[in-house]
Each structure stands twice: as structure tokens, then as C-alpha cells.
Amino acid sequence: MGSIENLMGRFERDEERTKCEIWVNQECLEQVNEIVYLGSAFSRDGRCDLDVDRRVAAGNKVNGALTALVKRQGVAKSARLAIHNAVLVPTLLYGSETWVCQKKHKSKLNAVEMRSLRKMCGVTMADRKRNEEIRNMAGLKDDLITKIDKGVLRWFGHVERMSEDRMVKKIYSAKVNIKRCRGRPRLTFEDHVSKLLEEGRVKSTRIPRRACMKKIMNLKEAKEVCKDRDTWRSVLSGYPVRDCA
User: Where does the source fall among the domains of life (predicted)?
Assistant: First the structure.
């Protein structure tokens, strides 16, 4: 753990100059600013911008390949939606469980999905229909952004249940005690999870002192609740909580 925290500290202090020599079979591996491994893109700064851009590009290629099929009126809408969910959605979501998504990332990904749904429903931008209306026309249950958020929370629960000797858990739990650089602190994965719980209005499972008190689940409680796989799965099944009209 000490070595992991030390390397993370060096990385945070100076992202551009940090060097960590890795030797395999007496050969020092080349250091690069970007690398693609198992389909996911990693950059030196640790952000998800590069990976999101790759997913968007891949999604646009899928959209182009499926255009003739999804626009064909002879194919049932349910079949076209099934193709959308089986081909395009996994392409866009690959590796998204670990992303700390910003609004700009979600906007790019959402645009790719909406382009596919508009073709499926025969709707153009000139028709000036809202995205929610188009999703209802297509029969889509959860939009892409909701699926991304659910995937992050699902991965959060999975990592929290891991044993402490797993490398993923060690890196996830490592604390770096260094002086922060100037500017707004970067959002951590735990910060992102906490934000999703609040935005999704996930209700606390704890019994309130008064019936009128409806607390939102915080990160500390989420870490306790997700230890039980079935309970956490039920929490995710109702995400996000939508107020009844």
C-alpha cells in the first residue's frame, strides 16, 4: 500500500513530469501520454475525456452502419429498438463504470443515442420534438445517461464488496496526503458517487425519527448498504427516484 500511495502522490504533484519506470523481463517499458488497453483509453492526466471521445467515435460508426436498418419501416419498431440496445448502447457504455462524467461528456454521448432514436422514429431536427418525447415514441425505458449512472453505482458496490487484498481495492482505498494544487479540486470517484445519490434522490434506508423526514442516502450509508448485494440491486432498480405527479 505504501508504494501505491507514494506513486499516486508523485502523480498528483506533477502530472506532466512524473516518471515511473516499469521493467518486464529486464526491459524498461516505453512511457507514453496515452494508451489503449482492452478497448479502454487511458491518459496521463487520469481523465476520461479520451475514452469518451473514442466511445463517441465508435458510436457514430455504429450509427452509420445501422442507418439503413433502423430507418426501414418494414422492420418492427420493437426489433429496431432491440438492435439499438444490443449494438449501439454497449458500444457507448463500454468502460463507463469507472468514468467520472461531466456534463460535456454526457452531452456528447446523449447526442449519439438521440441521433439513432430520431432515425428510428423518422423524426428530424426540423420537427422540433423534445428528446423525452422521442424516447417515448421509441419505447425506451432508460436513457443512456441513466444507464451510465447506474453502471457507476453498480461498480461502486462491486468494489466496496471486494476483499482488501485485491489490487483494485487497494488503489480505490489509497489516501494521498499531499498539498493540493491551485484551483478547484478534481472530483474523485467517491465524490461522483455521492453526487449521483443526491441527483437520483436515492432515499435513505434508515428509519427517520419523524414520518415527514425523507433523507437522501449519503456516501457513508451507501457503503454499508451495498455490502448486501440484493439490497443494493433493489436500490439500483429504482434509480433515479422520480416524484409522482
Answer: Eukaryota
Q: For every residue of 119-130, which 3-state class applies, written as one string? A: HHHCCCHHHCCC
Q: What is the DSSP letter of 91?
A: H
pLDDT of residue 245: 39
Q: What cell does 234 get?
A: 433493489
The dihedral of CA 120, 136, 113, 62: what is its sign? Answer: negative
C-alpha 69/C-alpha 133 separation (Å) is: 22
Helix (H) or strand (E) holding 70: helix 49-70
Does residue 83 register a pLDDT over 50? yes
- Report which of 51, 11, 18, 57 is spatially closest to residue 35, judged by C-alpha positions: 51
In 16-75 the beta strands, taken as DSSP E runs, fall at: 23-24, 27-28, 34-37, 40-43
pLDDT tens column, 16-64: 555 678 888 888 888 888 888 888 888 888 889 999 999 999 999 999 9
**Peptide bond just before 240 cis, omega within 30 deg:** yes
pTM: predicted TM-score of the whole model, two decimal places: 0.82
Closest CA to 118 of 84, 86, 76: 84
Residue with cell 487511458: 42
Cell 440496445, located at residue:
85
Q: Which helix (H) or strand (E) holds 80?
A: helix 77-83
